[in-house]
Amino acid sequence: MSTGRPPWRQALDRAGRPLEDITTSPAYANLLAVGVMARRAAAGAVARVASGLFGPVRRAANVPSRDDVRQLSRQVTALASEVRALAEAQQEARRRAAVSEPPKSRRPRG
Asked: 56 lies in which domain range?
């Protein structure tokens, strides 16, 4: 019965169709969705507990939280956008001033 394929491949070929039937069933999709929701809920609960336990220590050590970093990142992004807009407005004002000024005379003072 040796087809030249490794044993793991032969086992996978034998199990392939039943596994496809299982993974395409609506029950599998529902089970997968419930599993994802349970994992997210557990991760959120662990994060809340850890935050409650380590929050005072973190604040005493003056270490920023993830929310602090996110807020600071949003502020930096907003400031960068504002600086970019101001630089563009300044360039536009300089262009308008250069166009509206008459050429300067190069006559020596005397």
From this structure: 13-63
Asked if the structure places residue 6 within a domain, the reply is no
Tens of pLDDT along 29-81?
A: 999 999 999 999 999 999 888 878 888 888 888 999 888 999 999 999 999 99
Both 36 and 68 in one domain: the answer is: no
- φ/ψ (deg, to 5) at 107: -70, 130
Cα(65)–Cα(71) distance, integer angstroms: 10
pTM of the model: 0.44
Tokens of 75: 């502020």
In this structure, are residues 58 and 65 in contact, taking their beta carbons and an 8 Å threshold? yes
Give the ranges where the chain is alpha helix by DSSP (H). 7-23, 26-60, 66-100
At residue 27's C-alpha, the angle toward residues 26 and 30, to 5°, is: 85
Domain count, the chain: 2
